Amino acid sequence: MGSYDHLFCNFVAATLKYTEMNAISLSVSDQIYAVCPQFAFATIECVVVNSMTNSELCTDIHAVEREVQNKYRMEDISKIPAIKATRLAYRLLGKDPNRYRPSAEALCRRIVKGMGIYQIDTLVDLINLVSIKTGYSIGGFDADKIQGGLLRLGVGQKDEHFEAIGRGVLNIEGLPVYRDFIGGIGTPTSDEERTKISSGTSHLLLIINGYSGKEGMQQTVEWTVELLKRYAQATEIEIRLVAFG
Questions:
Q1: Residue 9 has pLDDT above 90, yes or no
Q2: Which of the two residues, 4 and 122, has the higher pLDDT score?
Q3: How many Cβ atoms from other residues are within 10 Å of residue 47's Cβ?
Q4: Residue 183 DSSP one-character state
Q5: How far apart are CA 190 and CA 211, in angstroms?
Q6: Are 176 and 25 a contacting pair, CB within 8 Å?
Q7: Whole-angstrom Cα distance, residue 158 to residue 173?
Q8: Which residues contact 139 (CB under 8 A, 6 or more apart)?
Q9: How many CB atoms lie within 10 A of CB 58?
Q10: Cα torsion angle, 55, 61, 67, 72, sign
Q11: pLDDT in tens, 189-223
């Protein structure tokens, strides 16, 4: 992987709770830090060209699927560091991670069962590739559909409406959730229909959630940027990598 060090902001101190992005700002609530003081996140915002499933990208995905199948048994998946940390955050927030599995865990379980993962389009497939390789649950959004200039990561409330992509209404009470001006758009279990990536998405916001901390985050961002440039013609790339622990 190439080096993108010049694109990163420095890791910031625990007292800082706010970071500027290109057009969208992001803040993290004290509720999240109370259960996960080491939480780190990375954002990649860029102009992209989405397309139908890319054959070369599919080859990359199948290679990683084979790695997962050869390396893990079903009972090992929940012990992958990034997945384990996300599951712990769920438990500390009062959510059962066996009923509401983080997306990275759900994808890896499909692979170990021999089911493979769905191919949707280039951007979604790329995000899934990074997720199964690293264990991070990654939010991918059409940035032009986000309402207002701020996203805030907090905790889902009782009866809060959330239309999960491909699965209908999701009970997000107790789940970490990113909200824009209108409401929730993303959790580690699923993103929301309202801001989902489509064939016409040209302005991407990608959020990598590090409930396991900052270790490995920079390498993941560098690889993700390489994939975005290779398969989605990414330009005008803005990156923020922030850790408070």
A1: no
A2: 122
A3: 16
A4: S
A5: 16
A6: no
A7: 5
A8: 178, 185, 186, 191, 205, 206, 207, 209
A9: 14
A10: negative
A11: 999 999 999 999 999 999 999 999 999 999 999 99
Identify the CATH assignment for 5-243 out of 1.10.3720.10, 3.40.50.300, 3.30.70.3040, 3.50.40.10.
3.50.40.10
Other C-beta atoms closer than 10 Å to the C-beta of 166 total 11
Mean pLDDT over the full length of the chain = 90
Both tokens of 179, joined, read 């909200």
- List the one residue out of 216, 161, 230, 214 whose CA is nearest residue 192: 161
Taking every pair of C-alpha atoms in the chain, what is the biggest distance, in angstroms?
45
The pLDDT of residue 149 is: 87
Compute the average pLDDT of residues 129-149: 96
Q: Where do the structural domains in the chain lie, given as residue ranges? A: 5-243
The H-or-E segment that residue 205 falls in is: strand 203-210
Ramachandran assignment for 172, one of left (phi > 0), alpha (psi -120 to 50 degrees), beta (any other): alpha
Share of the chain above pLDDT 70, in %: 90
Indicate if the pLDDT at residue 146 is higher than 60: yes
The per-residue pLDDT for range 53-70, each reduced to its tens digit, is 899 999 999 999 999 999
| Contact in structure between 86 and 102 (CB atoms under 8 Å) | yes
- Report the run of H or E that residue 92 belongs to, with start and end: helix 81-92
Amino acid letter, residue 109: R
Token pair belonging to 85: 């940390």
Work out the burial of residue 165: count CB atoms within 10 Å of its CB; fewer than 13 is exposed, 13-18 middle, 19 or more buried: middle
Dig out the tokens for 107 from the structure: 């994808």
Q: Is the model's pLDDT at 92 over the cut of 70?
A: yes
pTM of the model: 0.89
